[in-house]
């Protein structure tokens, strides 16, 4: 079955195979939602578990995410046509003064693979850009990255500016110098040490948000 072949191709880090099997599944008329959920997303969940368990490392994670993205690009026009809803919208970027993007890119690809619509602002992003993007795009989660100790104050300032601007979307943070204690200090919704954890965190926050809305 093509769905299983898509899953296995992602796990095998084979981008060309993911693309060919995704196209084959589309040609067979398999539901786009099934290709996404049972093929690509399930494979990335497996990859995330392998990474968390120390069975694979960042290079393999990046290759899997790139392979998944190859399939996702083929699905995008069909997702729009079928009105398949994304899990939510996430805006992500590396904070002002920091030009590192490997970790940020991996988180963005993992989020896309998990079914989120991701707006990637890139690197060296000032707080006003985060604020305008969050407001214009009805964002559900804001993800900030910093890889330098010297840019941690910029991350804290961005969080403060978001609050002052009245942006209510929860903020999550990550990066080599960042920790849970720093997250607690600057008052964000969560911290993750790796990309799979960031996806789980986003899932938790959206689940809590929607349960809160249902109670109203």
Characteristics:
5 strands, alpha/beta, 216 residues
Give the mean pLDDT. Answer: 92
The main sheet orders its strands as 2-1-3-4-5
Taken as a percent bin, the fraction of beta residues is 5-15%
The radius of gyration is 17 Å
Total helices: the number is 9
Gross morphology is globular
What is the terminal separation in angstroms? 43 Å
Could you name the ranges where pLDDT drops below 50 across 5 or more consecutive residues? none
Overview of the structural elements:
The protein is of the alpha/beta class and 216 residues long. 61% of the residues lie in helices and 10% in strands. It has a five-stranded parallel sheet with strand order 2-1-3-4-5, with helices on both faces. Helix 1 (2-11) packs antiparallel against helix 4 and helix 4 (58-82) crosses helix 5. It starts with a helix and ends with a helix.
Short structural description:
This protein has 216 residues and is α/β, with parallel strands linked by helices.
Layout of secondary structure:
Blueprint (H helix, E strand, L loop, with lengths): L1 H10 L3 H13 L4 H21 L5 H25 L6 E6 L7 H12 L3 E4 L6 H10 L4 E5 L6 H13 L6 E4 L5 H7 L3 E2 L3 H21 L1
Parallel strand pairs: 1-2, 1-3, 3-4, 4-5
Helix pairs in contact: 1-2, 1-3, 1-4, 2-4, 3-4, 4-5, 5-9, 6-7
